Amino acid sequence: MLITILSIISILIIIVAIYGRVQQKQVTAEILIEMPIKTVWESWSSFRNVEMYVPMIHKAYTISDIVGDVGHTRRCKISDDAFVDEEIVAWNPGKSFELSLRKKHGVQIDEMNILSEVEPHPEGTTASITIKYKMTGLMNWLHIHRVMQQQAIDHLLGLKYFIEKGYRVNNKSIKFMREAYSNFYSAH
User: Fold this and answer.
1) Phi, psi (5° rounding) for residue 103?
2) Enclosing H/E stretch for 66
């Protein structure tokens, strides 16, 4: 009986992995940061700062000769065995930048582009992030969309905390911020 159940589960996993459709999906989130747009832009566009406001990134460093413009590439270490290399593919100083996943290891995503934008707001700055991604096989089938949506929200919550408070974000502070700042962000 147990062998039969395990066999069926294994067959389903193989079928999904082989025939899983590749679809581009998108998540978007925005947040109000109670700081001037110049302050938000300088912190967010400082390519190395990502480890300060995204708790899953342990270390980030530049791996290209180009810095602060299209072509600037960073490596984000997620663990000793996992990383992503992100390259700036669009740069609109003071307004937006777009990153594209160039290389990865130990990460279950096939393609990803991240558009980060800032706009003035009467109470500070609106920061928004749009993540377009593709996953194949089992990860696509598992409807990872909600996880990606939470990652977008956590990215912005961490950015808000880092810019407004001046402290590096960790998993505990992100949990607190999900509750405390729920009226400051929106997602779709």
Assistant:
1) -150, 150
2) none
